[in-house]
Amino acid sequence: MAIKRIMTGINTQANKTPVAEQSRVNVRSLNEECGIFGVWGRSDAAQLTYYGLHALQHRGQEGAGIVSNREGHLWQERGLGLLSDVFRDPSRIDALQGNSAIGHVRYATAGSHGIENIQPLMVNFHDMQISLAHNGNLTNALTLREKLEEEGAIFQSSADSEILLHLIRRSKASTFVDKLKASLNVLRGGFAYLLLTPHGLYAALDPHAFRPFVVGQMPDGQYIVTSETAALDVVGAKFLRDVQPGELLIIDDSGLTIDHYTDKTTLNIDAMEYIYFARPDSSIYGVNVHQARKRMGAALAAEQPVKDADIVVGVPNSSLSAAAGFAEATGLPNEMGLVKNQYIARTFIEPTQDKRERAVRMKLSAVRDVVRGQNVVLVDDSIVRGTTSMFIVRMLKEAGAKSVHVRIASPTFKFPSFYGIDMQTTKELMGANHSLAEMTKMIEADSLGFLSVDGLVSAINLPYYGEGTGLTTAYFDGHYPSPIYDYQAGLAAFEARHEVDFAPEPTSTYHPHQVRSLRNQDILADGTVHLDAQPIMGGER
User: Fold this and answer.
1) Are 239 and 538 in contact (CB under 8 A)?
2) Catalytic residue positions, numbered
3) Whole-prediction pTM value?
4) Binding site for Mg(2+): what residues are annotated?
5) Which of 211, 236, 363, 384 is the right S-S partner for 192, CB 3.0 to 4.6 Å?
6) Residue limits of the Glutamine amidotransferase type-2 domain (predicted)?
7) How many angstroms separate the CA atoms of 531 and 251, rounded?
């Protein structure tokens, strides 16, 4: 993502939010950074990558690109807009010949919408080419970039993703793999990387596994690495396993080798993937997202019941699973009280109430004959700024709802995210600045209730038996699973009040045996796993 000096809304000399960063506001106000897809050994690699990225379009809708490897030479096509817009001209895919490719769909943070930030990035060195696609956010990017620039590095983009390319080139290690390992060990924060060279495809996940990352295999043997299992299903690949924290996967003509760039790892999957970001037909570490959301809805019904409710209405689309769970748990009818216009793309608007409300009404409509005269339980996945919730409540009441009781299938957002979600300031987080009573009044609801952190963890039901929960819930409880480096000064006031704390970087090794849904891994004598030689390996869905 773009390097930004947005911390928590606290105005310090070191951290002031640039005016440009405030110039455009997203209606939803909560966005995943991107989705990535890579394949090696397919004659239709670019076309397959296009299909895979299409399944990941929900992860990024403002830029897309594909880089292919044709007989050892990399070719790039990228542009602003939806994937279908960027590749509307068939000649762009036709230009990407070759038997391997990586692709990227991007959500661009405000102030970083230039073509130079659209990935995959590509560099041409005198002795090789490298292309890179990144999902996540580096928490030490500012420090690294300043150091690299002082040493003479010239950056072509404002994306923190480019830092890895500079580190690789400046490494003194003798082989490319060793250069990559050394560079990855310098980075902090959340990252899932795909790198394509003339000789191989490389995939690496951060030591905490903040972002989802999976491996699949096509029926005729080629390997796929991508952000979600839904993309594997679309291209007809069989799910093999979740990429594990600290792993470096190497895919070339000899097959897939699983190596590690560090053995200091832990498991801290971002809970927001289950709550909102991932597709409902995806599975993360053996947990289906739709089923997890249904359990969240059921837990919400138990924790935050609504007396004399008549119907349950979910906010389309990400909250429909939770609404189904709430309705099943209570025996209430699960009604389609809101309809989403599926043909409205992500809309950025000026931060005025009138324009925000018009944007919400363009996307959602109340079904009058369903909600008229009813006591409505409105189930949503989250409240960020709260303005969208207010407009929806107002819309339902204008359509004749007798009352609207808002129930949120996640805990209250109180603290920023730094691992790959565009939520790096508390300034606009309603839950960070207002009491429950104040929020209820602000969104014009008759009542408001949130799922507890314990309820969320139990609902996700990650089959994990290691230290902690295996999830990142810092946005709700303030317990960050790692230091946040360049951002930490901005949370000093919260830290002083003991509202947040930061675990140290891991010093021990997480092992997949700690997750019930993963099969045991037989590590070979050289410390790697060769799936071609060990076909029984992989995860169970």
Assistant:
1) yes
2) 34
3) 0.89
4) 318, 380-381
5) 211
6) 34-254
7) 10
